[in-house]
Specification:
The structure holds 2 protein chains of 2 kinds.
Chain A: H1 11-14, H2 20-31, H3 48-62, E1 66-72, H4 79-92, E2 95-101, H5 114-124, E3 126-127, H6 137-152, H7 159-169, H8 179-194, H9 198-208, H10 215-222, H11 233-246, E4 251-257, H12 260-265, H13 269-288, E5 294-300, H14 302-306, H15 316-322, E6 337-339, H16 345-359, H17 371-385, H18 394-409, H19 415-427, H20 432-437
Helix pairs in contact in A: 3-4, 7-8, 8-9, 16-17, 16-18, 17-19, 18-19
Chain B: H1 4-8, H2 11-19, H3 27-38, E1 43-46, H4 53-67, E2 78-81, H5 85-99, E3 106-109, H6 115-123, E4 128-131, H7 133-142, H8 147-151, E5 156-159, H9 162-165, H10 169-185, E6 190-195, H11 202-208, E7 217-220, E8 228-235, H12 243-254, E9 260-264, H13 267-280, E10 290-294, H14 300-312, E11 316-320, E12 335-339, H15 345-352, E13 363-370, H16 380-383, H17 386-400, H18 413-427, E14 430-431, H19 432-441, H20 450-462, E15 466-468, E16 473-476, H21 478-485, E17 498-503, E18 506-512, E19 522-525, E20 528-536, E21 541-546, H22 564-575, H23 585-601, E22 608-611, E23 614-617, H24 623-635, E24 640-642, E25 647-650, H25 654-666, H26 671-676, H27 692-702, H28 706-718
Parallel strand pairs in B: 1-6, 1-7, 2-4, 2-5, 3-4, 5-6, 8-13, 9-11, 9-12, 10-11, 12-13, 17-21
Antiparallel strand pairs in B: 14-16, 15-16, 17-18, 19-20, 20-21, 22-23, 23-25, 24-25
Helix pairs in contact in B: 2-4, 3-4, 4-5, 7-10, 7-18, 10-18, 12-13, 15-17, 17-22, 25-28
Classes of the chains: A alpha/beta, B alpha/beta.
Chain lengths: ~450, ~725
């Protein structure tokens, strides 16, 4: 059936079989305007160089290096998609991925619990090979413990001797600032494990998630004199990365989305400066070897860097470290900033082909929308937006999926009518508020 | 005690009631208990001050808290919003007594509460929280990340003194904050309003539940209505006795025993009257009630002292402004005096309700009206004695049971500006549609259209209050950051710069900086005369020492709007021959002479009075309509001057004016055009940031009344 053979379909998306679960998840997410959590390789279009750059970082981190990248692109350029794609790759390769959105209430630095809130979010969204959908902290701890037991050969050691061994194992952590308490809490978790004391284990996890707000409470529950404070988010991440290495993982990737929260949303200058200072420390250490086994992948809009008033480039120290020297139009694999251009028409066409294949579960004979139909749909949709480059692919994907659904459910319907209907329907602004305010640009 | 309602209470709450040694429940309490115990709809309890409203509401609420233990123990269960710190402190004491035996914690949170106590509530939220609207705002701005934890199990919201909030910026502020809280905690608590007697409960219903105002039950107190006794006394200065001096003498004669409240419409009158009591009439009679003062310029300490004097039961003469109108518990008051009519009948009723609270007692009001003495060159209007006319009209309306109705559903653009800044401060940034969603569509500002919201945002951008990034996200601009960082931002209303007045270490009170203070001049405050030694503008302090020189500064008094109906009634007072028995004899003489003057001038047949130099129009309309007519005159090129009752059109003939009036009734006029030529457009705190056209639109709606202006013209032409 595939007669319009001019479309170049990337080889990676040709082969794999789509499972029904992947199909359901992908279509549901796309129809809701979201990036799906699984099966991203079925959708992947372009971004070859960017992905190569990020994957090459993984190799470095495995060997004990550190990396820092900022993915920059307008909304809909695919920042989240790229982060998620990297996430699935990284956990496959044995990495631990921590992911969270930055926001006013989730900061890299704070004084009133909002730094700890970010750390808590990161450690609640732990992705590993065993927990590809997140929530993997407990599993990670269990992996560490079973690894220990394996190493020791058998369970014949007394609990005291075992604790002693653990302490020795964790000694390397104690070189880090705050490492002594970190190690103590880990051994408390182990104690809870061998003595079947889930309350102690929960307390240790709470501590690791920076959920203790006072030292008094932490001392009562765990016997440690410190907590992970609002101003120690980055040191705590380094400690966690060191621990993951000890537990046998390849390294830790920290993914932070919505970088603009730090540059544009913190409502006063001192708070913004304190957070940017943490970013600078992270960059310095990642570039100069102060950090190891950890990679940062941040995502933000172009303003996050370029805005003259508040963008990161308005800070000279950051500009000199982040600004790329590659001539325009050339891709510098080593640049810390990866700029994503919006998808062009050709790429969108490939994307729609991919979606159609997902919709028919890879069985091209079930396609009711011919290639001609895809082209027709896209041309009309782009015409409606009055440009060849779309701000956001979701504007096309949502009506496209409903076209596929309608054709699937109504075998007697002509595709021409359905495409016509879908495009004109989506152009009818039903909500006066949205019509006035959706794309409001203040002068 | 075994009434049915009592049995609905939780046994532990029953025990608390018994321990209070109450012998019975008021009917309003029984009705409220029945409702809250059995049902989940919103509710307004309307009763005069200290009609037992607080207990009526909190007894059944506590019963429900004890009856079904909440899933989330760690949360505030009841949020009680009160407009005054003093009210919160008062209720805190009362509710603690009630809740202590029940193990339900009671917390308070306002500007004067210690930081540690606030931290405790944030981290261990539970039970009842009494709080000011401004402190709720500070929660959104400073602790948005605590909101979920603090309120996730919130079951009830109680808004105290609802009637005082209906029309005001603070009322809208509360509505907006409550609407913003709902999506955060993902639940809608039951909302209960405590109010004075309401003229028209619709606005109050909308306040609590704008989606479904009809579903809000109103429980009004009729049973405790007490017999009323009123008197109206006109006072005119004569010889070397000023009118306040005469009033002071009269009060000494009439109010000999028991406590009484003397209300005045401005702080200045309170202070001047106090000066008369302490200075002029130095005949210090034995057993005279102790003098105490209460108004917004006095320090909290002085105000608290006055309140506790009243509570103690010791005979006290308290001179006050509206600050004592709200429901602070002040014990038994024998009678209430009022100097000059209030702006509204509702406020007069509220003040009257302060007296005669004990069972079987009568509510007594003595209304003094200061009538200026007639000068040699007297105008026609002065012959009608406008202040007296207004007092008589308002008293007639009060006795007939009429109350002003409230127009709460205006645009509230100033408060919307405040809330836009607040949401941006809370969240760091939002796109325009999300802001509209939060504040207008799902929030309290339902009347604001998307197009208007758009111009509002543009206006804020022009003032650098907000800024926008290339993705469309709006965030605080430089000026916006500055405004929202000041603690004064928490209030949605204007707080004038005030200076603290100190004599040595003692704080006397606060005085508005706008009155033009100078070193070496005198001021009177807290009943004393003070010489200004030094003004420290940096420390915002005025250093004074006691003096005997006399010279009063001008305190700025609030300006209210008088309802159309009151002026209609004033006309009726002129037309009828009725002689009310509550009007003092001298007042009856003045009234007769006013009626005679009206008859002679032909005012009873026509609203237009022809004079040598022009024509005078008596439209008999309230503040808003009068303002509209003035603007209309300006708009059509008629020059006119306004006095308390009429518009004077100089060099205009009657026929000319009638032509114009006909045109007014027939042609389409855009109220927004009239609003555009208003002299003082900016009234509320953030009006100066509202885009010009938008402000005109809002003013046209809430400060003008074109329909009734046309109606007045029609009435005049028909006669």
């Amino acid at each position: 059936m595939n007669t319009g053979a001019e479309i170049v379909v990337p080889s990676s998306t040709k082969s794999p079989n789509i499972t029904q679960r992947e199909q359901q998840t992908i279509l549901k997410s796309l129809a809701a305007g979201l990036v799906p959590g699984i099966g991203l390789h079925h959708l992947l279009v372009g971004r070859k160089l960017e992905i190569q750059a990020l994957i090459s970082d993984l190799d470095g981190i495995k060997k004990g290096a550190a990396s820092f990248r900022v993915v920059v692109g307008a909304n809909g350029a695919g920042k989240t998609f790229l982060q998620r794609f990297l996430r699935t790759q990284a956990v496959q390769e044995g990495f631990v991925v921590l992911a969270a959105d930055l926001s006013v209430n989730h900061r890299l630095h704070a004084t009133d619990g909002r730094g700890r809130a970010l750390f808590a979010n990161l450690l609640s969204n732990v992705f590993t090979k065993a927990s590809p959908l997140g929530n993997g902290l407990r599993g990670l701890m269990e992996t560490w413990i079973s690894g220990l037991a394996l190493e020791e050969g058998d369970n014949s050691l007394s609990p005291e001797a075992m604790t002693e061994r653990i302490n020795r194992k964790l000694r390397s952590l104690k070189d880090y600032p705050g490492g002594f308490e970190f190690a103590t809490v880990l051994s408390r978790y182990y104690e809870g494990h061998v003595n079947d004391n889930p309350a102690l284990q929960d307390a240790a996890l709470r501590w690791l998630r920076a959920e203790y707000s006072t030292k008094t409470e932490a001392r009562q529950d765990l016997g440690v004199r410190r907590i992970i404070g609002d101003e120690e988010i980055y040191p705590a991440l380094k400690l966690f990365a060191a621990f993951c290495k000890l537990a046998g993982y390849a390294g830790v990737i920290v993914m932070l989305d919505e970088l603009s929260a730090l540059t544009h949303r913190l409502p006063n200058a001192p708070a913004r400066q304190a957070n940017v200072q943490v970013l600078l420390t992270i960059i310095n250490e990642c570039f100069q070897g102060g950090a190891s086994g950890i990679g940062f992948v941040l995502a933000g809009t172009p303003d996050t860097l370029d805005d003259q008033d508040r963008g990161l480039f308005s800070v000279p120290a950051l500009r000199s470290r982040l600004q790329t020297s590659a001539p325009p139009g050339h891709f510098d694999n080593g640049s810390p900033v990866l700029r994503l251009e919006p998808l062009g028409k050709e790429e969108l066409l490939v994307l729609l082909h991919n979606v159609r294949r997902i919709h028919s579960l890879g069985d091209e004979s079930k396609n009711r929308l011919p290639d001609e139909g895809i082209e027709c749909f896209l041309t009309r949709a782009l015409l409606r937006f009055g440009r060849t480059v779309l701000a956001n692919p979701r504007d096309v994907l949502r009506p496209f999926i409903s076209v596929l659904n309608i054709l699937h459910q109504n075998p007697e319907e002509q595709w021409q009518n359905v495409v016509e209907g879908a495009v004109s329907e989506s152009s009818r602004a039903t909500d006066p508020a949205a019509a006035q305010l959706q794309n409001l640009k203040l002068q | 005690m075994q009434p049915e309602a009592f049995r609905l209470l939780h046994p532990k709450v029953q025990q608390v009631v018994l321990n209070l040694r109450w012998t019975n429940l008021y009917p309003i309490q029984e009705e409220t208990i029945r409702h809250i115990a059995q049902c989940a709809s919103d509710l307004i309890v309307a009763a005069p001050t200290s009609g037992g409203k607080t207990e009526a509401v909190f007894l059944p609420i506590l019963s429900r808290l004890l009856g079904n233990p909440p899933i989330h123990h760690a949360s505030i269960q009841v949020l009680c919003i009160s407009p005054l710190k003093a009210l919160i402190n008062d209720q805190f004491a009362r509710l603690t007594r009630l809740c202590k035996p029940l193990d339900v914690p009671v917390h308070r949170w306002h500007g004067d509460v210690e930081v540690e106590a606030k931290r405790w509530v944030r981290e261990r939220p539970s039970g009842l929280l009494l709080i000011t609207p401004e402190s709720v705002e500070s929660l959104f701005i400073n602790y948005p990340h605590y909101l979920i934890n603090m309120f996730r199990g919130l079951q009830f919201v109680v808004v105290d003194e609802l009637h005082s909030l209906l029309e005001s910026e603070r009322g809208m502020h509360i509505r907006s904050l409550l609407a913003r809280l709902k999506p955060v905690i993902k639940r809608r608590p039951i909302c209960i309003g405590l109010s004075a007697t309401l003229g028209d409960p619709f606005a109050a219903r909308c306040f609590l539940n704008s989606d479904n105002p009809e579903s809000v039950l109103v429980i009004s107190d009729r049973s405790t209505a007490r017999p009323i006794s009123v008197e109206v006394i006109p006072v005119t200065a004569s010889g070397n006795l000023s009118n306040l001096g005469i009033i002071a003498e009269d009060m000494r004669r009439i109010f000999c025993d028991g406590s009484h409240l003397v209300f005045a419409n401005s702080r200045r009158i309170v202070e001047e009257l106090a000066d008369h009591f302490l200075g002029h009439c130095q005949v210090d009679a034995e057993g005279e009630p102790a003098l105490a003062l209460h108004h917004g310029s006095l320090s909290a300490q002085v105000r608290r002292r006055t309140e506790s004097m009243l509570k103690s039961g010791k005979p006290t003469r308290a001179l006050c402004t509206s600050s004592l109108e709200l429901g602070i518990d002040i014990g038994a008051v024998e009678a209430v005096a009022q100097i000059d009519p209030t702006w509204s009948v509702a406020s007069m009723v509220q003040r009257l309700g302060r007296s005669g609270r004990s069972i079987g007692a009568t509510s007594k009001l003595r209304l003094y009206v200061r009538v200026p003495p007639l000068q040699e060159e007297v105008s026609f209007v002065e012959l009608l004695y406008p202040p007296l006319l207004q007092a008589v009209a308002m008293m007639r309306l009060l006795l007939s049971g009429w109350l002003e109705s409230v127009n709460a559903e205006r645009l509230h653009l100033s408060t919307l500006v405040h809330q836009v800044l607040s949401v941006l401060k809370e969240t760091g940034g939002r796109d325009a549609l999300a802001l509209y969603q939060t504040l207008c569509r799902e929030g309290a500002f339902r009347r604001v259209e998307p197009a208007d919201f758009k111009s509002l945002l543009q206006g804020l951008r022009d003032h650098d209050l907000i800024n926008q990034d290339s993705e469309g996200i709006i965030f605080l601009g430089r000026a916006g950051e500055r405004i929202t960082s000041a603690p004064s931002f928490y209030a949605a209303f204007c707080t004038p710069v005030e200076l603290t007045v100190r004599c040595g270490a003692r704080e006397l009170g606060r005085i508005s900086a706008s009155v033009g203070l100078k070193e070496g001049e005198c001021l009177i405050l807290n009943g004393g005369r003070w010489l200004i030694d030094q003004i420290d503008w940096k420390a915002k302090t005025v250093w004074v020492s006691a003096t005997s020189r006399r010279q009063a500064p001008v305190f700025l008094g609030g300006v209210g709007e008088v309802d159309n109906r009151i002026y209609e009634e004033m006309r009726r007072v002129l037309v009828t021959a009725e002689e009310p028995d509550w009007l003092e004899r001298n007042g009856l003489d003045l009234l007769r002479s006013a009626r005679h003057a009206a008859l002679e001038a032909g005012l009873l047949e026509s609203d237009l009075v022809e004079l040598e130099n022009g024509v005078q129009w008596f439209p008999w309309v309230g503040t808003r309509t009068m303002r509209t007519l003035q603007l209309w005159a300006k708009h059509v090129g008629l020059s006119c001057t306004k006095d308390s009752l009429s518009l004077m059109f100089e060099d205009t003939s009657r026929t000319d004016l009638e032509k114009h009036l006909t045109a007014l009734t027939e042609t389409e006029i855009d109220a927004v055009e009239l609003a555009a030529v208003m002299p003082n457009k900016q009234v509320e705190r953030f009006d100066s940031y509202v885009a010009k056209e938008l402000l005109d639109k809002s003013n046209a709606e809430c400060r003008l009344d074109l329909a009734s202006a046309k109606e007045a013209a029609r009435r005049t032409l028909v006669a």
